[in-house]
Specification:
Structural class: mainly alpha
Shape: elongated
Largest sheet: none
Mean pLDDT: 81
Radius of gyration: 23 Å
Order of helices and strands: HHHHHHH
Number of strands: 0
Bound molecules: zinc ion
Strand content: under 5%
Low-confidence stretches: none
């Protein structure tokens, strides 16, 4: 991977959204590469400024409960629906392999 590849991952890294292996790889790179470490520090500071300038508004009390109730209402038909008797539960890989048959050399 090149420095530009690592730098594109910094946002995901700071959000904690990188898979473990990538995170470890990026952290090793940041220890060795001054340029990427500088980019990471700059991005971290920018994000801190943005958080300070635009704090997340606190949701009103009971917001979570209201939203949960609305979601429950919206999806109750779907939640109540019985699974179709003959529906293959793991059909996706088979559908994919039908659509994209493996090429034979
Ligand atoms: Zn680098």
């Amino acid at each position: 991977m090149r420095c530009s590849d690592f730098q594109e991952l910094l946002d995901l890294y700071m959000d904690g959204d990188l898979p473990e292996e990538m995170r470890a790889r990026l952290e090793r790179h940041l220890l060795r590469c001054a340029e990427c470490a500088f980019q990471a520090r700059t991005l971290e500071q920018t994000r801190a400024h943005l958080r300070a300038a635009y704090p997340h508004p606190e949701p009103p009390p009971a917001f979570r409960e209201k939203m949960a109730a609305r979601l429950q209402d919206a999806f109750q038909d779907w939640l109540r629906r019985e699974p179709e008797p003959n529906a293959a539960q793991w059909s996706l890989p088979f559908l994919l392999s039908e659509r994209f048959p493996q090429e034979t050399p």
